[in-house]
Amino acid sequence: MKYLEITQKKNNQKYIENLLKTYPKISSGRKKYAEHYTRILKNLLLTKAFDLLQKEENGSNYFNYRFIFINNKKFITLKIINSNDNLNN
Asked: How far lies 80's CA from each of 15, 64, 85, 89, in Å?
């Protein structure tokens, strides 16, 4: 396997901003919401990646892979690169 890409579309989170404008008192516990949403998406992508790698490699060592996140405006992508393949090429 050279590399594998998994992509997740970002949903519009505008409703949270509207709620905070309408009800400003609830904003005390909701700082940096966009960063929190991105972190959740990254965790989902990692879960999908580990499931795929476990099926493909029969649970081999995950330390042989590099995980690169690419964060665009509409999508977040996880690129999985096998480190052993890069060393051999």
From this structure: 33, 10, 12, 16
